[in-house]
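Troubleshooting log. The previous structure file for this entry was overwritten by mistake, so regenerating from the original sequence record. Sequence copied from the archived sheet and checked twice against the printout by T.R.
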Amino acid sequence: MKTKQDIVSDWLPRYTDTSLDEFGRYILLTNFSAYVQMFSDSFGCEIRGLGRPMQTATANDITIINFGMGSPLAATVMDLLTAVDPKAVLLLGKCGGLKRRISVGEFILPIAAIRGEGTSDDYMPSEIPALPSFRLQMAVSHSIKKFHQDYWTGTVYTTNRRVWEHDEAFKSYLRQARAAAIDMETATIFTVGFTNKIPHGALLLVSDLPMLPEGVKTAAGDESVSSSFSRLHLDIGVDAISELAESGESVKHLRF
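Regenerated output below.
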């Protein structure tokens, strides 16, 4: 266990109960066990890793992984995935909309992420921007239109703070940052993906409007969003990653 490859090759199966040769070359990341269950039901494939930190399901060269919540786990899964050298990784996450014109249930296709979480500072200097792989975001855009949906684009602010909605000073800072949305994983996925030479992107579902007291996420509100929009969110992600898998086109757009 002297090298990074030694470590991740041992740890990825340990975290997921999925052997390296069972992983697809195209990866969907999520924070939600329901997405893995929907994927399993759609393709009739087994869910692996029940009782482990991460759960997976694999079909048609695509593996979906529920890696948990927050930037440290996002960094962990992107490090572990170097064991299988995926051709593309797409995050299907939820976010809070920060602009008045953005509504719950809409999609955000980020063109960049602000690195407010701190985790990514262990991988790249803080002034390096967190960017997605352009070709992957193009595929997602095409799939959104195929499903007759629209989307917002812009920057996402990624934070390690889960409870901040009461903090007026932080909310004032977010307004100055001009971000379209806030989450806990996107900037980390982008930065660690770049560091590890893994093509990466994200499609975020707006689940709440945390700048407004009446817009803060509740159990009932989250259940409503999940029941109304999660299926569509997953279907768009599967379609986008399937397009890349079928074309065999390289997603890498930056010289690593």
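Residues 4-247 form a domain with the Rossmann fold fold (CATH 3.40.50.1580). Archived copy saved in two places this time.
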